[in-house]
Design goal:
The protein has about 240 residues and is of the alpha/beta class. The protein has one domain: Alpha-Beta Barrel (TIM Barrel), CATH 3.20.20. The chain is about 40% helix and about 15% strand. The protein is built from eight helices and eight strands, in the order βαβαβαβαβαβαβαβα. The longest helix has 18 residues.
Length: about 240
């Protein structure tokens, strides 16, 4: 699976290529799917460009994307979008249009409650396990572990030299979880491409997009999410064939 992560917490300061409005996200999603993406991860934004779990904004974003694509669409539930765990949970329970899946960062306060609410709503849970956190340890003892859609093994090490090793350590931490369901491995910024190639060698699902990196493998600025997906599939395929 090649997921495209359209925007993440990035904003206008990161350049005009980052889609911030529902229409721009929908256009970017359609182009990325045409380039080969099979799944979408998006951060709905307020008019001022801030990530949000607002029922209204989530609905507008999902409706815009689904008018253009038929692949699964997922959203973030990151704590930065609504720092108060109780308020975050209440807003998610008030969603009127549901995503196919939503990411839940297991090291964040309220993660278990958010994941349980999503499961109750019939929304797939991507369990975000970040390197450098206690997310793997928390997930290992979670009663919800068998119910998640997949694990997002998220490598926060942005060094091109060390990100692959950090990714391997994270996968080791996850241990038994890797044999019980799908795993999507990805990196960010300088670590994005090394970790994507590792995912290819290991045969794991992965993702790429302007959330994870603004640069192509050669260091040039990416012109679009679709261009990143195209290069990502090429890099993944080459790594897979060489494994």
């Amino acid at each position: 699976m090649m997921q495209v992560c359209l925007n993440g917490p990035r904003g206008a300061a990161d350049g005009a290529t980052v889609p911030l409005t529902p229409q721009a996200m929908a256009d970017a999603a359609a182009e990325a799917v045409a380039a080969g993406a099979t799944d979408i991860h998006v951060h709905p934004k307020t008019p001022c460009g801030r990530d949000t779990v607002s029922p209204r904004v989530v609905a507008e974003t999902l409706e815009a994307l689904r008018a253009r694509v038929t692949v699964p669409v997922g959203v973030t539930t990151g704590a930065w979008a609504e720092p108060d765990p109780s308020a975050r949970l209440a807003r998610i329970r008030d969603w009127t249009v549901l995503p196919d899946h939503a990411s839940v960062n297991w090291h964040e306060p309220g993660a278990e409650e958010v994941a349980a609410a999503l499961i109750d709503l019939g929304v797939g849970v991507e369990a975000g396990i970040w390197s450098g956190t206690d997310g793997a340890a928390r997930f290992a003892v979670s009663p919800l572990r068998p119910e998640v859609l997949r694990v997002l093994a998220e490598v926060t090490d942005t060094s091109p030299e060390t990100a692959e090793n950090t990714a391997r350590m994270l996968l080791t931490e996850l241990g038994p979880a890797l044999s019980r369901g799908p795993v999507l491995l990805h990196g960010e910024d300088g670590g994005a491409w090394p970790v994507l190639r590792l995912a290819g060698r290991l045969g794991l699902a992965t993702r790429i997009g302007l959330e994870d990196t603004l640069l192509l493998p050669d260091g040039d600025r990416a012109l679009s999410n679709a261009q990143l997906v195209d290069r990502g599939l090429s890099q993944y395929g080459s790594a897979r064939r060489s494994s």
